[in-house]
Amino acid sequence: MLRVIGLKLVRLVPVLFIVSAATSLLIELVPGDPILAIIGTEGHPEDYERIERELGLDQNVAARYLDWLGNIVQGDFGEQITRPGVTVADRLKQTFPVTIEIAMIGMGLALLISVPVGTWAAYRAGTRFDRFSSGSAFGIISIPSFLAGLLLVFLFVFNATIPRYGVLVLGLAWSIWLLWSAGREQRGGGGGVIVRIAAAVVVAGLTVWLTNKWPSFPRQGFVRWTSDEGRLENLRSAFLPAVTVALTEIAVFMRLLRGDVQATLQEDYILSARAKGMPPVRILARDALRPSSFSLITLAGVAFGRLIGGTVIVEAIFRLPGMGTLIVNDGVNTGDFPIVQGGVLILATFYVVLNGAIDVSYSYLDPRLRRGR
Amino acid sequence: MRSWLFKLLALLMVFGLVAAACGNDDDDGVTTGPDEPAPAEPSDDGDDAPAPADDGDDEPAAEPADDGEEAPADEVMMDGCEATVPGTKVNYAVFSPNANMDPTGSSGALVGGTQIVNVWDVLMAFDPAAGVSNGQAAESLTPNDDFTEWTLKIRSGITYGNGDAFIAQDVVDSMLRFFDSRGDGMNNRAAGSVGLIDFDNTEVPDDSTVIFRLHRGWSTFHTLLGDEPGMIVNPRIIAQLLDEEAANATEETSAARLVRNRMAVTPDLVNAASFGPYEVAEVEPNVRTVLRARDNYWGGPVCIEEIEFTFPGSSVANWEAFQAGDFNAAFLRDPRVFADAREAGAVLSSEDQNIGGLFLFNQGVRGAEVIGKDIRIRRAIHHAINRDIINERAFEGKLKTTNAIAAEGTLLWSPELQECADQAPSYDPDAAAALVEEVKADTGWDGSMLLVHADTDPGPEIAQAVEGMLEAAGFDIEVDLGPVTTVLIPRVIIQADYEMAGWGFNADGATWVASLNDNLLSTSGSNRMAFAHPDMDAALGELYGAANVDDQRAAIAAVQCVWSEQLPAMVYSVTEEGLALAPNIKGVQRAGATIFLFGNAYIEN
User: According to a count of CB atoms within 10 Å of the terminal CB, is the N or C end of chain A lower?
Assistant: First the structure.
């Protein structure tokens, strides 16, 4: 196993070299000049050449890249050009946790919702639940994330009463339905009456609690996990961006998992388990889900890596100080190449390491792969 | 169980849920949305007493503002608190993040003015309504008859964060640092004005007095002491830092620049070298700056414990977030946003920046042969452009359009000035077309012209409207639209490769003289148009010596008369900028036109 991990780490080096060299060339082609950003509207033309020399920007792109590479090898990400004195490493330390938190919560929410719903939809394929969940997934997939973000802002920030009372009405309806079904069971002599009543009470209690404690969500900004304002404030500020990120992933994961689980449920060993009278939840959770999760894990890994580098739209909508904002606003827009280089390097490393980890995880999910090696 | 029991349970649940969920609306923190606007409390229109600080006795007399603008939301707080109130906080949405906490590396209200003034304090605080400055860290500032000599008395008992006493020599040393850092990679707009101080003949007779001698009479010199040069940096700390950085300095990077870079990222240095009401607690570049109340502020206890400055991204973003309750103070700078804010009844403290909307004409920068040199073309452009169309197309009709360099409603406007402004060519497309044809026939020019404009909202709409109007008059317009840093600055400042450019001088009461001189004086290095006319130079000279507001009005009117005759550029609007404040924040004071001091501010309830 260590050999596998070691090989994957070795492969990381040429990938990062190619990515950083390509970034260096690309940033040359993009409009944006850090000297102009420094000079500003009060500057004078004679300042230009002096600052260019001072910052070493009069060198060609290859020389600048090699300089940067030499420093990176020693662990020095350099200084931001347009913010003298501010190190790129500090900017990355400030922004990376924001992006990774949003991506992690988003992925967590997506998996939390898509796995049970997708699995159950597969088990109850063709039923109303399956049709409803599949239809919802298609609907959600068709909403671009920037629109989803703006809709969430509209609903949860500026019109918070709509989702709040929406939850109240749904909770109410659910509780009543549970009671009604309990009554129906009672009349029909079926079991589970007490469970349904208890569920109705729990749903009602949760609905009341949630409606009363409905949090207000910020329009913009981010409270850090380590902030004095506390973890709850952090989660409050991360919630809407994370939901925006999660929405598309939920739909995709759900569709994927539903198909895989449905195929697995046709396997002989599942039929055998059913024949033995195993409860459906156990069959789904223990026997069907694990072999069905390969595609999901691969996709989740790719999606997570993509989210780390691709939350720029969500960061723009919610004005979050994350990696996307840093690379685009502080880096690309002003041609501040150390910021772009440093940011892209971190993202590329993360992406490659993550996908390597996913490869390694396959052998845990399927013992046949381990034995095959 | 019987079915009636379930029905009863269901009914009880319905009532219980609705009652429980609806019964706690007031304190559950539900966001105030647009349908729940902020309380419509009108701003106090200057009824409060003036600042308790002694003002310069011989300052030009204060005149009541007759501009119809909102006065500062609440100019002065008396007895707001006896000590800093724990947990009180101002969440302030800025227009753009500050580049540097060092005054020599920052610039004006838009780029960090409020952040740094609350850390450094200022010698004089400008009152835009009256056009005068009041003493802040200075006790008084007294000019001689021709305004060539100004005697500054500083307050006693002020100490810097490191415990050093603030003495008069520090004022001179700090300003000299400002003077010396010109051309050292800084882009502070006030730097040029510091050059008017004759440092060789400026005296410090004792620890509390500075006698400034100026190279020329300047009646509004007091405004400079309310700007970045009036923010005093402890020179002993600077000297120590210069020693430390001497070894790291190179031919290209001076020790002074290295010191400024260190100040940008080291809050402790800033706190030790300053004596303002707040200290820097945290700086996250381009994102936020957190200030905490200073324990031993010379002005007494600072009531509000913390100010957090955040950069949401634009005026619209600031206003949205203010409405959502994310901020209780938001800097605004868009006429459409101001209209929304007024409609929502927000408490505003704003100021009209004159010559805010402007088209520059290249008149031969660095010897370039450009069509804008011909005054007939400048006249044709004035005839071709309808300000109301720009307003409708780009600003939903909410822009304050004007043809005057001091718009009606601002302090220095006068009927005489308006009379001169009205002499400039007005909208007349036929006259414009005739002039364009005449120039084409005389010179062989093909009508082409390059219009450069920033693409920040609503730049594209402005450019498009102007392009249409000019082409209707016979121009052949090429538009270069893009970000300020990649299009406007290189085209206008670095390469001077433009013929017409969207710009703004943004002259307010505190910056009138410097702004007009920088942009219009024939010898100014910041004259982006190469406009040069002896009448304008003479009129600008009068502006320096105008003794009071009446004289200033007369001098500005004279500048307007030359402007209308020579048409160096085309004014189309003022730019309103200022602060939307939560109604419970009181005592916010102006340190400049739209720079706000929170040293005396407090939060009610």
Answer: C
